[in-house]
Every structure is written in C-alpha cells, then in structure tokens.
Amino acid sequence: MSRGRLRRGVLALAVLIVGSTAGSGISVAEAGLDRFYRQELRWGPCGEAKLDAAKARCADIAVPLNYAEPQGRAITVAISRVSAGDPARRRGVLLGNPGGPGSSGLGFTAQLGDHLDIRDGYDLIGFDPRGVGRSTPLHCGWPVSSDLRSAGVDSVGFGATLALEAELAARCLARNGATQSFITTRNTARDMDVIRAVLGAERISYIGASYGTYLGAVFTQMFPERVDRFVLDSAVDPARYHVAMIQDEGAPNEAAFDVWADWVAARDGEYHLGTTGPAVRATVTGLIERAARRPIRIGEYEVDAHLLPMILFEGIREAKAYPELAASVRQLAQAEYQPVRPEGNLAEYLEQALRPKEDEAAEAIILCGDAEAPRDPAWYWRNIEASRASQPIFGAFANGPNACAFWQPPIEPPTVVGNAVPALILQAVQDTRTAYQQGVGLHRALTGSRLVTMPDRVAHGVMKQSSCASHAAEVYLGTGVLPAEDITCPADRG
Q1: What are the entry keywords (predicted)?
Q2: Quick one: pLDDT band at residue 494, thresholds 50, 70, 90?
Q3: Separation between Cα atoms, residue 345 and residue 367, nearest integer Å
Q4: 425 in Cβ contact with 439 (< 8 Å)
Q5: pLDDT at 1
Q6: What is the sign, positive or negative, of the torsion defined by CA atoms of 107, 112, 115, 121?
Q7: How far apart are CA 289 and CA 281, in angstroms?
Q8: Which pTM does this prediction carry?
Q9: How many domains does the chain contain in total?
Q10: pLDDT bucket at 452, cuts 50 / 70 / 90
Q11: Ramachandran angles phi, psi of 466, nearest 5°
Q12: DSSP character for 412?
C-alpha cells in the first residue's frame, strides 16, 4: 500500500473517530461498518482444556484490517465466553487483556473468575487481540523470541545490538509489509467495540493487566460512552508509552535485584554466590562482564552479556521465582569452569529465547505500530552511558534500542488520554515492569479514577498479591462504587 493511500486512510479514520466520541456513538451505516457490528457468531467448543473445563464457548469475529477502508480485507479476532452463572444477577459483559503486548487473552477472564467473585454477574469474555494467537496472527521469522534485550557493556556490544534490531525490523517488513501497520492498540480498541456490539451490550466492563491497562485507557478515550466498570492492574502511563515506559523499568529492577541479592546471600550455603548482598551483586556483574568477552557455554547454548541481564530481569520480578533464579545463576557461574547442562527454569528460558518455537514478534509489531522510537543511535548510547553508574545491570536494557528504532512510521499518532471516565487503578510501589510512577500518571490522566497502592512487595500484578486490593476490585465490579478516596492495600503475608 502506498504512503499516500495510508495517509488518506488515516484522514478518513479521524473523521470516524470524531463521530464515535461525539456522544451518539459510531454511525455504522455511514462508516460502512454495519456488516461487522451486526454479524452473527457461530459458537463452538474452544478446544483448550481449561476453557472447556470452564464451559466456555468460542467464536471468531470478523473485523476490518483497516477501519478507514472497511470494504477491504477482513481479519478475525478469536473470542471466548463463559456465561454468567446467575442470570438474575447478570449485569453485562466483562472483557480483559493480560498484557504483553502480544499475549493471548482467550482464557484470561475465565482465569480471573477463579480468583475474583465475578462469575455470577458477568459474561466473561476473553479474546486474542488482532495479530496474536488465534486471531489472524502475523509472523516475522525471527531467530530469537524477543527484540527486548540488553545492549551490552561497551560500544562493541551496542553495535551488535543495533545490527540485530535492524535485522529483526527488516524481517517483519519483508514478510508483512503494510499489513503490520494496522496491528495497533487503537485498532484493538475498535475491535473491542465490535465485540461489544456483536454481543448485544451497550457498555463493557473490563480488567486489564500491565499493557492491558494501556489498551483499556485507550478504549476509555475513544469510546467513553461505551465504558462501564474498568479495573486496571499494574498500569501504564499513556504519556510515557512506550520508549519512556521501558526506561522507567531500569531503577525498580536494580532495586529489586538488591532484594533478591540479599535473599541469596542469606542462603550462601546453598548457592555460593556471596555472603552479602553487595557480594552477590559483584558476582553477577563480574559474570556479565566476562560473558561480554566470551559467551558462557552451557549445554548447547551460549549466554552473552545481552541475554544474561534478561534472565535476571525475568527472575527478580517476584519472590516465588527467587530460588529458580539463584539456581540459574549458580549454573551459569559453574559453566565458566566445567561442562554444565542447563536445568529447570534456565533450560526452559534458553529454549524459548534462543530456539523459539513460536514467533513472538507481536509485541514489537504492536509497540512499534503504536508510537515511534528515536532513530539516532547516539541518543540511545548517551542514555545508556548516563545510566551505567546507577543501573549497572539493567541500564543498557532500559535505555537500549529495540526494533522500533528501525520500523516504518505509525499510521496514526499515539492516543492522548485525558478524561473523567471512572476506573480503579491498582499499583505496586516496587513493580519491576510498570514502575509505580506509571500508575500515578494514569491516575492523573483519568481524573475520575481511584488509585490503590500496594507498598510492601516486589510484584507485577496486585490483585493476586493483595486480598485487600482484590476485594476493592470485586466491590467496584459488583456495585459500581469506587473507594471514596485513594487507598493503600498491603500485600498478603506469606
């Protein structure tokens, strides 16, 4: 598709969006979207054990690839439905998104029903966002599972990172062309409104986690009249999406590393990585520096200074992962001196990261399609160098380039979120993925929201960590009543 045609499509789409937020909703007949909004679904078994056990039914919904050209190509969005357990108490439909971006959400709301008292009041609707899972997925043929990785310890590693990210972006463009430009958060929000209409609902309720909070916030801005009760757990600040959002991860991950290091030091008899937190940190930073000079050979894999920080990044996000991370680092330390085969979580991680069975480029396709990233390599290098003193392990990841630095420009600008739609926002002070200030930023943008703060645990995801917070979510979803003011909820003990 030519750039001129794309721009004309964006202009037509802008007219459509103005109509959708003027108070009367989308005029589907005028927009040419009536065939999507009025389609009939064919429900059947989901073919997934957990969904089938929950008595879910699944269907495919047709949506336009390009909402500005609805008579053009259509793609499918896979959805699931667990009907409300008590028809007398049913108040509507509840959609959800587990994050990513690029994560399957087909079973997300059904799983939430196992933890929250919401089954009687809502039809629980899961869906795979466009481009993901069973929803007309896109593939890029990447040799690795993610474009998010550390840029290394020096200029040589930085140059290698630039070369890899450029290759990954080129692979996606060569395989998908302009099609990938339409796999965006704004279009997924439009898909959600089609789902709403097809299900016969005037409004939707919603639970979003991590990136799912950004999707939810975008929906509130584009379709405020279609919003019922929104719960946003571990939030993204739309004003910092997505480059600054990743930069914000550096400091809390360094802090979380020190919590893990103290835990490991207290168990030095088992892991032999250091008897104090600073000693454990010195062991790990030394391991990273040596991996930059010569990758660590462990079994059939090689772990370099780009990958090792990402292993740490995965392992420090919550306390239940601490033993496996400690065991992984111990294996890597031993592998420097003797043949070692990876075991446990390390073996699983390396298999997934370096021998990807499924293409995981959906995350990059969505992030890069939503918002531009700086293209000047010097910009990244300056930020990396400035971060090294305070973020020696994670600064080169949080400030480094990803594939978006080499991507084609987005066809729409990022959504500016600012409205008074009610919402409940849950945020952990020690969140390593969406930093606490991200939740504060979203709370500021959604002036009708309330903020629930969990101050006392390293965690990404508040509802499963705090019964106080999950209770606040249940009350809001059940009654529509937000807390009278922002509140603090401690993590559960244990």
Answers
A1: Hydrolase, Signal
A2: confident
A3: 27
A4: yes
A5: 41
A6: negative
A7: 12
A8: 0.93
A9: 1
A10: very high
A11: -135, 115
A12: S
